[in-house]
Amino acid sequence: xxxxxxxxxxxxxxxxxxxxxxxxxxxxxxxxxxxxxxxxxxxxxxxxxxxxxxxxxxxxxxxxxxxxxxxxxxxxxxxxxxxxxxxxxxxxxxxxxxxxxxxxxxxxxxxxxxxxxxxxxxx
Length: 123
Hints:
The protein has helices spanning 15-27, 38-42, 64-73, 89-97, 110-122, and strands spanning 7-11, 31-35, 50-56, 80-84, 102-105.
């Protein structure tokens, strides 16, 4: 039976960023899904199948940090990478302390993102 490919879910309210990351993941052979908001991701059937979550920190409604904490509180330990255009060292330190895989500032290097994904999947 073939092994199913890891599902990478991308949650970002910026459509161009969301689609760029989703396209990159697909080009690398991953299954990828994109969501415009944390709520859309949580209401999807993909959340339970997600192997790695890439979420923007600043989003309307639930932020990436709040999404990560919500998943932890509900017992879903999805390896998570947060991306942000507004880096904040205190948010970064707290999130990494909570078990976040990576915290990347936009624009980030594609190779840095790939390293984070490999780390999260090898977890």
